[in-house]
């Protein structure tokens, strides 16, 4: 007997990638998609693949309870609203419990220091609370702890056009290392898990890239890709903040960058355990391949 699956965040890059992959496996009729606006172009493109669309928002408990009716498995993509993430997650979790959802696959974030004084606590606390809720509940869970996407690197240090002007990676992460992971690898792993969800009951997976890299490694790799010299400069936080402010970068964005830079410098994303090759059944994408797409 087939199970009915609901995927949240279906109009985003990750959730949409999961949905598209499942459509290629012929699972369209077993899957519904939670979208905020069924009339958006992205929603319409998903409906054209044959998916059932269910309207709902993480902030609207009534819509969540309605959307989760008849759902056996929830593929729960974490909220993007950092400040409101935990209340939104709690809405989803409680609605799933009321609706009788049997299994929740949750996209969490991998990091080391889970204490309240950890460098990334403001960003990661909702993930910690969501994991704890799931592990205490009677609902079967699968937790996917994603490392930082390789795709965030240009957001930290600039895209191809910006680097063409400066040939400098300017980011205060010191000598910290990160096992950056390609989003497409995470999508592929998510598809494999949701396609055989019973095999992953009550498992917690660490999904990391093929190796740990520092920003000096990233600079050298980009230099090799572009044929231009690229250097890495790690300023102190105050200098970085004043420099970014001078370029007109909004203060909340600067604070978020500093938070991640501090976490990277302290080794929050420097990981050894990696379950991704086990799920993918092949090696994760090398960081050089991810950087080549951008630079």
The arrangement of helices and strands along the chain is EHEHEHEHEHEHHEHEHEHHHH
Strand content: 5-15%
Structural class: alpha/beta
Note the overall shape. globular
Main sheet: strand order: 3-2-1-4-5-6-8
Tally of individual helices: 13
**Termini separation:** 47 Å
Number of strands: 9
Provide the residue-averaged pLDDT. 95
Largest sheet: 7 strands, parallel
**What percent of residues adopt helix (DSSP H or I)?**
40-55%
Low-confidence stretches: none
The radius of gyration over CA amounts to 20 Å
Description:
With 295 residues, the protein is an alpha/beta fold. Helix content is 45%, strand content 14%. The chain has 13 helices and nine strands. The chain has helices spanning 13-24, 41-48, 61-67, 85-99, 121-136, 153-157, 160-166, 183-195, 215-226, 237-246, 251-265, 276-280, 287-294; strands spanning 5-7, 31-35, 52-55, 73-77, 103-109, 140-146, 168-170, 203-207, 231-233. The chain has a seven-stranded parallel sheet, sandwiched between helices. The chain has a two-stranded parallel sheet with strand order 7-9. Helix 9 (215-226) crosses helix 13 and helix 10 (237-246) packs antiparallel against helix 11. The longest helix is centred in the middle third of the chain and has 16 residues, at 121-136. The radius of gyration is 20 Å and the shape is globular. The relative contact order is 0.13.
Give a short synopsis of this structure.
The protein has 295 residues and is α/β, with parallel strands linked by helices. The chain has helices at 13-24, 41-48, 61-67, 85-99, 121-136, 153-157, 160-166, 183-195, 215-226, 237-246, 251-265, 276-280, 287-294, and strands at 5-7, 31-35, 52-55, 73-77, 103-109, 140-146, 168-170, 203-207, 231-233.
């Amino acid at each position: 007997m087939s199970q009915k699956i609901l995927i949240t965040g279906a109009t985003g890059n990750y959730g949409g990638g999961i949905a598209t992959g499942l459509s290629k496996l012929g699972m369209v009729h077993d899957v519904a998609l939670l979208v905020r606006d069924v009339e958006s172009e992205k929603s319409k493109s998903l409906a054209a693949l044959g998916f059932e669309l269910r309207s709902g928002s993480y902030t609207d408990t009534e819509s969540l309870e309605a959307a989760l009716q008849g759902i056996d498995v929830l593929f729960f993509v974490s909220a993007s609203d950092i400040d409101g993430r935990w209340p939104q997650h709690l809405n989803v979790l409680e609605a799933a419990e009321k609706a009788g959802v049997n299994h929740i696959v949750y996209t969490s974030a991998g990091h080391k220091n889970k204490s309240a004084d950890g460098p990334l606590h403001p960003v990661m606390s909702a993930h910690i609370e969501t994991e704890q809720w799931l592990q205490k509940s009677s609902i079967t869970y699968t937790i996917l702890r994603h490392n930082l996407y390789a795709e965030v690197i240009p957001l930290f240090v600039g895209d191809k056009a910006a680097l063409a002007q400066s040939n400098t990676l300017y980011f205060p992460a010191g000598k910290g290392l990160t096992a950056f992971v390609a989003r497409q690898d995470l999508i592929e792993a998510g598809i494999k898990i949701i396609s055989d969800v019973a095999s992953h009951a009550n498992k917690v997976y660490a999904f990391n890239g093929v190796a740990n890299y520092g920003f000096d490694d990233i600079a050298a790799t980009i230099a090799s890709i572009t044929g231009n010299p690229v250097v890495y400069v790690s300023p102190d936080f105050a200098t970085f903040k004043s420099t970014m402010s001078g370029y007109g970068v909004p203060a909340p964005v600067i604070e978020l960058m500093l938070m991640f830079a501090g976490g990277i410098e302290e080794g929050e994303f420097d990981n050894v355990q990696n379950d991704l090759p086990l799920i993918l059944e092949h090696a994760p994408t090398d960081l050089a391949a991810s950087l080549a797409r951008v630079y």
